[in-house]
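Practice problem 4.
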């Protein structure tokens, strides 16, 4: 069984971020521009802070690729932190002559306090630098490799924003082309009226020194049925997908298909009836399950949503306690965003793509990309699967 692995390293204001992806087959053609386009997409969205004006993220391949094609070994990517020039003494990997003050003001809602307890630090910065959502730039780089692999197999991963604060979108995209132009919208929303209201809400909350959460939706098209498995809890794809999305900083909930709404729906209206025709083979007319049944893909579009809480770094800090003096204090105030829900969708694309690419690798193996394609084709022929036009 071939397993795909992804590991990231680096701190928010350190020299840079590193991504290593292991388990992709040889012969996979990569597009540098497509990879860096995803890096730029992560920086989109109304409500982003000053850091996005400093960083212009690109992923430089330093291992595992030759002349634009994977060689079968681990792939390493580097993302420079331009802001490191302003933090070189404070974040140097090696001792410096200058005296660098410690941070003792943990933020409610962040990893700060529990992190210093767990790892025995006295300086909150030793926790917050790695806990920062800056780390997601490395995930997007690795997810870009997974997307390239999936694209060869006819799989497309898309995202859009469905809610910011109380403002909800009415858009219900059903095809990949329905997402055309989503990245040109200020909040990556497919409902123009809702988008305008979202921007107004962000502006109002920013003036009130607030941060804002929301919900993004991922839709994946072209998946082969039978990825994942029902036989063991850790092989069920619904658990792996929601776990990956909930691993994204500030995500506090995830749902598949109609999700929590199914809890209040009678069984006759909650499940996707099965039909058959000579022309279409087996098919469904609904997709309440979001493309997963029994921990396995059904061949219907995968639908997954993630709910993001407001960011814990506020321009008007919340109450906290100085961990050195134990005295009441305001939480640390760092440069921050007002809303990152549009970027959250892009990061979730990367995480979902990685989990799905791993599911393909586990099921179909193959040392070369042509071996993978042949294995997928043989399986789809065996089960009589007919891809939608």
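Answer key:
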């Amino acid at each position: 069984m071939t397993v795909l692995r992804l590991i990231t390293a680096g701190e928010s204001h350190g020299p840079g971020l590193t991504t290593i992806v292991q388990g992709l087959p040889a012969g996979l053609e990569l597009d540098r521009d497509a990879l860096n386009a995803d890096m730029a997409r992560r920086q989109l969205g109304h409500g982003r802070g000053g850091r996005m004006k400093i960083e212009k993220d690109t992923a430089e391949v330093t291992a595992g690729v030759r002349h634009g094609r994977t060689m079968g070994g681990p792939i390493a990517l580097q993302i420079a932190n331009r802001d490191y020039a302003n933090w070189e003494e404070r974040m140097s990997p090696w001792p410096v002559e200058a005296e660098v003050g410690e941070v003792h003001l943990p933020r409610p809602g962040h990893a700060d306090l529990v992190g210093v307890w767990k790892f025995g630090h006295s300086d909150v910065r030793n926790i917050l630098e790695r806990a920062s959502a800056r780390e997601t730039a490395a995930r997007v780089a690795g997810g870009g490799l997974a997307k390239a692999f999936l694209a060869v197999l006819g799989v497309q991963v898309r995202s859009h924003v469905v809610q910011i604060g109380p403002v909800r979108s009415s858009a219900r995209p059903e095809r990949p082309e329905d997402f055309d132009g989503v990245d040109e919208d200020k909040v990556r929303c497919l409902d123009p009226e809702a988008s305008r209201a979202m921007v107004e809400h962000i502006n109002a909350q920013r003036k009130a020194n607030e941060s804002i959460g929301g919900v993004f939706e991922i839709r994946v098209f072209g998946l082969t049925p039978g990825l994942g498995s029902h036989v063991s809890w850790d092989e069920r794809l619904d658990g792996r997908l929601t776990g990956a999305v909930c691993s994204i900083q500030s995500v506090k909930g995830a749902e598949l298909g109609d999700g929590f709404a199914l809890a209040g729906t009678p069984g006759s209206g909650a499940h996707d009836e099965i039909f058959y025709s000579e022309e279409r083979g087996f098919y469904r007319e609904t997709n309440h399950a979001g493309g997963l049944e029994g921990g396995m893909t059904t061949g219907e579009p995968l639908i997954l949503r993630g709910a993001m809480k407001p960011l814990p770094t506020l321009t008007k800090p919340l109450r906290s306690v100085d961990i050195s003096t134990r005295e009441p204090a305001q939480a640390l105030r760092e440069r921050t965003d007002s809303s990152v829900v549009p970027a959250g969708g892009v990061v979730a694309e990367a995480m979902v793509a990685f989990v799905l690419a791993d599911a393909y690798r586990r099921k179909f193996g193959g040392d070369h990309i042509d071996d993978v394609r042949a294995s997928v084709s043989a399986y789809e022929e065996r089960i009589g699967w007919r891809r939608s036009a």
